[in-house]
Amino acid sequence: TRAEALAEAALERAQALQERLNAFITLTPERAREAARAADEHRRAGNISLLSGIPIAHKDLFCTKGVRTTAASRMLAEFVPPYDAFVVERLAQAGAVSLGKTNLDEFAMGSANEHSHFGPCRNPWDTDRIAGGSSGGSAAAVAAGIVPVATGTDTGGSVRQPAAMCGVTGIKPSYGRVSRYGIIAYASSLDQAGVIARSAEDCALALTAIEGFDPRDSTSLERPVEDHAAALAAADGRLDGLRLGLPREFFAVEGLDADVRRAVEEAARTYEALGARLVEVSLPRAELAIPAYYVIAPAEASSNLARYDGVRYGYRAPAYTDLDDMYRKTRAQGFGEEVKRRILVGTYVLSHGYYDAYYLQAQKLRRLIAEDYARAFASCDLLLAPTAPTTAWRLGEKGQDPVQEYLQDIYTIGANLAGLPALSHPCGFDAAGLPIGCQLIGPYLAETRLLLAAHVFQ
Ligand code: GLN
Fold first, then answer.
1. Which end of the chain has fewer CB atoms surrounding its CB within 10 Å, N or C?
2. Residue 37 lies in a domain
3. What CATH number does the domain containing 199 carry?
């Protein structure tokens, strides 16, 4: 009954905090109890994995069989998938007990979790502030002590940035490392699943469970999986010989908060004291990551979201005159403001006459940005940077100007454009007592190295 008792306590906490935080879109207490009973039975039969009976939560972008999966959109508010996402399947097989589905920005588009059809998620450290986005509900649920681990997706920072804003640890693995099967698509060439937890050690455990080849995702890697948790267990508490690169351009960003800069620089000195060697590196095209990303991501989104036509599944406008009118009303009513903005931008940059000037140009920039990272890794093993330029802002503060919100992604989107693994871990607090995140970015498939560094730091 150990797992049952754990599930009961976690459900109680989730329900008690729901009104304050709005971290969940759907809670599934009956399913959680059932999974917990099964985990207890497995344990009695002698089958135990470290995740067996552990309460978790899934970002509501992962399809869950028989449980509505909304993407925080009116378009999918009633959508009940007939299958589980790969990540959901894997964690269930490991015995983890899902409490339900967490809040996010609609279709994962946003950096604050304010663009949700179900209302914003609030930051447990200060409920007048954003939890970060798009995986805000998962980060808030972990930070509030509801679950020790939750899943997220990261297209441009959506695992790392909310983890930073909520004072927890989050990792986005290399592109292709975790199957995207069953994740509602936003920008397919950038989307990756990740995990958010209270420590690098817990991240390692959960990440190991979800990695691996999946033939149902054509970009899934056929490479053996590393046991990250075992690698961490063998750590000796030192990082001797590790070369940590500090990208010059990242620390020159206008808008980098003084407290954030101080905390990240202090983290660098702590790494130094643990044996790491600090080296200055350059990412000359760092500034161009935002314009490149905000062309490529909307372009892919406009294509991915074309499927919501009111015919196949999802919302359909109740009244219309003909087929065109049905499409128009369905999409006008089903999508929120930010999603519509991205679809319009996406169709514009892909349209005849603008394709070369915008989309093709952005693709070229993407390659140059990836080359910058590759060059930086010639002189260091990991990059150290802020996760976001500021701590959590007040709800509504940046709502008026979408560009203000886009600029918050300056430190995170490079890793997505280049397909690299990256992690955010807490490194202190600002003057208002809000958590600050420090980011480590690694070369392709260096997940263990990232987790190990953060683990030794913690
Ligand atoms: N903030 C970025 C965006 O709005 C990234 C979101 C994400 O990683 N899903 O696109």
1. N
2. yes
3. 3.90.1300.10
Is 134 in the active site?
Answer: yes
Question: How far apart (Å, rounded) are the C-alpha atoms in residues 304 and 321?
Answer: 26
pTM: 0.98
ipTM for the predicted complex comes to 0.98
Q: What secondary structure does DSSP assign to 116-162, as a single string? A: -TT---EETTEEEEE--SSSHHHHHHHHTTS-SEEEEE-SSSTTHHH
CA distances from 305 to 300, 322, 331 (A): 9, 21, 10
SS3 24: strand
Choosing from 102, 158, 338, 410 the residue with most ligand 1 atoms within 8 A of its CB, the one to mutate for a pocket test is: 158
Task: Report which residue type is found at 154.
Answer: D
Number of domains in the chain: 1
Confidence of residue 275 (pLDDT cuts 50, 70, 90): very high
Q: How many angstroms separate the CA atoms of 114 and 425, rounded?
A: 23
Report DSSP state, residue 113. S
